[in-house]
């Protein structure tokens, strides 16, 4: 049941052994003429019977194996050619190298890279054993873009190398993850060359065995090699010419309307040479016809005409009809349909949201409506859609419709208040602008308000949703005060559990009609689970290919066939774009590269709108995005979605992302490419859960003293409160009013003076916004007429560790070198530079309990839970590591970055001293046990999205040397920066129940190392150390000890001897308490 340590993900060679049994539909791998990749490892046989032609290729393989083992050696084609020609006394042609690539397609890299990327290989490795204080980046600072420099030589260099990282073998101890790889000894180099030669022999023998009698194996190899001759992107020939001459099989990208079917694309995909049983599961949803119905009260002729002329709609789907009929009966409505249908609800229900507005305006020209969206982009999209609808509706074409958000100029706001019939806004503006100035809105707009539409209701949950729920209650109270109690509310949402109940909780209303039957048509949709293959099918010890490489390769394949793709990444959007840029350039597919862009939250508003427009108009073939595009911003028709890694938002985010493809009834594709981490691999083995497992209920905390008090202060500022307002704000109203507000002689409650003059500014619905650094491109400043431009803005907590002099900054997949950072002006100046490495600093977050405010006994236990002030410190990055094209660490430096510090509130529970000693005696790593127990506790907490723990980092816990700072043995949890919801207090008050629930979940699951079946017992999708430091047995011991349960020592498994580890966890010291603290009953 226990485990000592999860294996490092890079060596997951055996993970695929059980995949076939778990896949729902796993097509058999197609046979190929050249060779089979699915055979087991064979012993090398004699080469004396080979045709002489293969002896030549063998010599080439030997030279390449030697060259590529040298870290500082740039393995370019000219270097290899010189060595081979000296050895074999005859010229080496490109076609011969292409033959080696054809024999070992997944092992050998043969392609062009920018010449600038080779510069780093000219630096020799410092062997003194000490890190350099600061690297010399002057050589790169003036490089600029390769496209802007006149050179006497080609801008691209032909590289010939082995795929896997061979420049020294990293220790299997994760503690060496950021150390430079050691140089190979002569014996190790000899062994490496022999292994590669053996692999070559196996490949040739496979080819010879597969060759049919009468066929010439040399001719077969030469024919296959023609597809592997690389294209020089800096050549003078046009892209189309290069395609014709060098790669005759490459074709022009078809228009998306003329693309082949997804089924045909997948059938061809399984025939590709690089297909190696990556497809572990396939589920197909058949196309579905739309179902229409008639309204109980038909629309007027002019509204029907408007819908017909603007949208080409002649009938409404059943869910739209049900919603419009319910609104006509003066009921509030929520429409929630499945994203797996291939349609996002915002597009299915645009008529649901907008047709009723036309009806209200037709009946009453003074009627008003409010549309609330989670993002400005969504609001702008839908405003444009409504304006088009109104334009085609006779008599309503002059209706005033506006966006009213933070970008609305101050000088225009008064005019909007006085003239708008419909506004598109967000809850931030409702909270900070409309409600605090309700006296300016009530006379006309609020008094005549007929409809309030809230889209993407599933977006509002946890602390953010809890704040929004209180804003809606304040809003209903203000409207009621002006005599408007007949507002109808309508919401749209992706599929969630209990949508009707969620809407009732959000709005504080009871009369809600829930509509979940989807009548929209849907095209056929295929869902694939695509696990990266082994780097070398004959040598599992090399591990699997990277999930990013697999994702970008699949994306390139789809785009060449006219399939419009979006690739969702978690935090590596720019790195994926950089990879795509390099790969498409090496292939000479600049025509496709021009139609691929990255999209994420840090971009400027202008850049995001430009990308959205490019996508919507169909100019883009590919988008690489973070979850910023999970919500329904209209970016046109997408044919395929690739999800790189399981989303941190869980199954709800997974289904939301998958629903981005096939929005207009065409066939579509969704592909999940798992990372090698435990949660991802769980879904590889259990793919049905991706579709069938219920999503978690959306959580709102309507009884948080912190949240309710904050909004009562705001409500009292808008209009004085009475105890009758309990009908809006709940049972806490009386206590909070009497203790926290100011009561006048007439019994009215007013805002406390400390919140004046503007109470709303004390509440950030989404959490306090951080200061930001501007990243400014100064590449063109030294050129005539050149100007600097802001690339994007980066939050302070990121900037302190990711932006430093010498760091590589990536924007749209293009690399920039940070030249200068000014912390006073919060600005980083960067230069466009072609480099083949990235910088990846390591930071450690330490949470220390500083002062105890409350102590609570744990039920039936001698131990206690504590709540109080905590100090959060993100320490200076101890090193930056640079990765070359093979992901090898080529340098590491110390950084002199000031720590990021702040205070927070949180809770903690100390691990008993005896338990700590027991684990050490039993060979159980205390860090693994505590980390797993923290996850188990959080996974039972409904508001876990708004509370974090101190995740244990593998390279620190498994370090092969003493740790500078020992961590106290305690479970510790804290509220993230800027959150004001009292989540830690809530967890503290329910500590006994949460601990018991965690123990039950972990104890009753039959898994050995933790899984999602035990409600993600010891694994968490948000763990920043990828759940590598965890022990299920350790978690059980810790949880039982804290709860005062007996521990059967005989059941503790005996662990095999392990490498020496140093102590990182010590007994937790007592934390100073404020005066007068008493122990509260459990």
TrEMBL record:
Biased composition (Basic and acidic residues): 244-259
Keywords assigned by UniProt, alphabetized: ATP-binding, Hydrolase, Nucleotide-binding
Xref: InterPro entries: DEAD/DEAH_box_helicase_dom, Helicase_ATP-bd, Helicase_C-like, HRQ1_WHD, MZB, P-loop_NTPase
Domain Helicase C-terminal: 550-727
Keyword ATP-binding belongs to the record: yes
Ranges where the record places region Disordered: 1-47, 231-259
PANTHER family linked to this entry: ATP-DEPENDENT HELICASE HRQ1
Name of the protein: P-loop containing nucleoside triphosphate hydrolase protein
Biased composition (Polar residues): 233-243
Protein source organism: Obba rivulosa
Residue ranges occupied by any Helicase ATP-binding domain in the UniProt entry: 324-514
Keyword Repeat applies: no
Gene3D superfamilies documented for this protein: P-loop containing nucleotide triphosphate hydrolases
